[in-house]
Amino acid sequence: MIRKLVIFGVGLIGGSLALALRGANYCQTVVGCSRNAAHLQKAIDLGVIDSFTLDPQAAVQDADMVLLAVPMGAMGRLLEQIKPALPADAVLTDAGSTKGSIVAEVEQVFGKGFTRFVPGHPIAGREKSGVEAAIPDLYINRRVILTPLPHTDPTALRAVEDMWRMTGAVLESMPVALHDSVLAATSHLPHVLAFSLVDTLLNLPMREDIFRYAAGGFRDFTRIASSDPVMWRDICLANKDSIVEMIGKLQADLSEFATLVERQDGEGLYTRMSRAKQARDSYIAYLENHKASVQETQDDQ
Amino acid sequence: MIRKLVIFGVGLIGGSLALALRGANYCQTVVGCSRNAAHLQKAIDLGVIDSFTLDPQAAVQDADMVLLAVPMGAMGRLLEQIKPALPADAVLTDAGSTKGSIVAEVEQVFGKGFTRFVPGHPIAGREKSGVEAAIPDLYINRRVILTPLPHTDPTALRAVEDMWRMTGAVLESMPVALHDSVLAATSHLPHVLAFSLVDTLLNLPMREDIFRYAAGGFRDFTRIASSDPVMWRDICLANKDSIVEMIGKLQADLSEFATLVERQDGEGLYTRMSRAKQARDSYIAYLENHKASVQETQDDQ
């Protein structure tokens, strides 16, 4: 049970959490905070939060749970702002798409020994974003990954676990570095690729024809290039090392592929593509078998 | 009106054409030919063809229209086989995904002056393949691209145009080289990327976690990696130059992207990703506006 939940950044992620917890009567009060009063008023009108303030220090007063759901580029400054007023027994958690960067920022502001921060990443999304898109059942059967540190207070961890469990989410725990590598591979790299592919095509002389003749496969493949550039800029900056490493690995694979094509090595191409097809087909079969337990998201970050 | 249509390779593409033409009473007889009698018998049972033979020379006897719908790697040998028996007034066309290679093969077998070959590429597909997946309305509102050569006989071209028009397809005409570049960009490159991405992930130490945590975006993005490796091997070999060129361009773009990430150039990243998002969104808006006229295919090649 949470007494006062403060949500910084009341959009799809924070708003859906608030709706789920309020629906379950798990929160006495939910306070929203951002820099946009009209937007926060809308969140009140939609029944997502109880009240709001534009002042981060006022917001965290008497709070026992604080969720940071602002764009990752805004986290550092926000931490500085709330530091003087954050109650000693409050639990701090976040919803950022990468974990190493926020862990470093919290350490920098609150010190290395700070035990009441629980890094979190709810893997849920919809095509739409913003508080208008918030729904109480967004997290049902969706994954929420927590990456507690060795010195994280077990009580704080349990409080965050309990909170997410109330939303119907499936909880997972893994080290910060593994989280960032896995997400770099499965989410960040595909996004980088989609943005780059569209950009490559834009620079071709026959781009008019290209966009005219592009068909279904291209549409699916580039869907994620329609994602929010601010969020993805922040993710790229925050998960720099893993993303650069993944781009390098893919570049090496692409070079090998190009060499096989150039050498007209049909057998080599067939082997490579069969292996990929087989892995992808097994992955889909795995998903089919686990459909009941964990839902896929439409727009994971 | 076609007297005798011969289809080499009675699968989804050839079978659906046969069903559409028979449904429109546009063919007196449809003869199937491949190396698999059981498969051809099935095509008869399904009402797709009237009769079959395993002998390419017997097949083309008295034919006025011959469609090559075998895998591209099998085209060259087939051309050699039918050459001695192809009637002088028969029209030869194909359904291959690249056009430069088949044009070269036809020239090699029939000579540079051969006027009765009309290179074609029906851009249509379904998740399923094979004659069992053939349907009479596959081509309704789908694009069929023809790439006639300067010396192509206008009567032959008209015969192929009329045939496809009967299926409800939207006809387009463009030069061979443009076709191959545009398809390399919009279809072949995305496929190469999807195959390579899955392969890159397979080689990572944490691949178990990766496939476990991969979510919606990854699934869409790699869907085309489940395509037929034989077909894609042949496409890569046949459209070698364009594909290698496109991989090179994408590699250059990816390197630039990686440099921006490494330099923590947030503005550069934002500019690049916004541009891609805008182009992709306009493309989707364009598609929405043209939905009524040209249908997207599920699995274009």
Automatic annotation (TrEMBL), chains A, B:
Domain of life of the source: Bacteria
Catalytic activity: prephenate + NAD(+) = 3-(4-hydroxyphenyl)pyruvate + CO2 + NADH
SUPFAM superfamilies: 6-phosphogluconate dehydrogenase C-terminal domain-like, NAD(P)-binding Rossmann-fold domains
Residues spanning the membrane: none
One Pfam family from the record: PDH_C
PROSITE patterns found in the cross-reference section: PDH_ADH, PROKAR_LIPOPROTEIN
Keyword NAD: yes
Alphabetical GO biological process terms: tyrosine biosynthetic process
Alphabetized PANTHER family for the sequence: PREPHENATE DEHYDROGENASE (PTHR21363), PREPHENATE DEHYDROGENASE [NADP(+)] (PTHR21363:SF0)
The protein's name: prephenate dehydrogenase
Classification lineage: Bacteria, Pseudomonadati, Pseudomonadota, Gammaproteobacteria, Thiotrichales
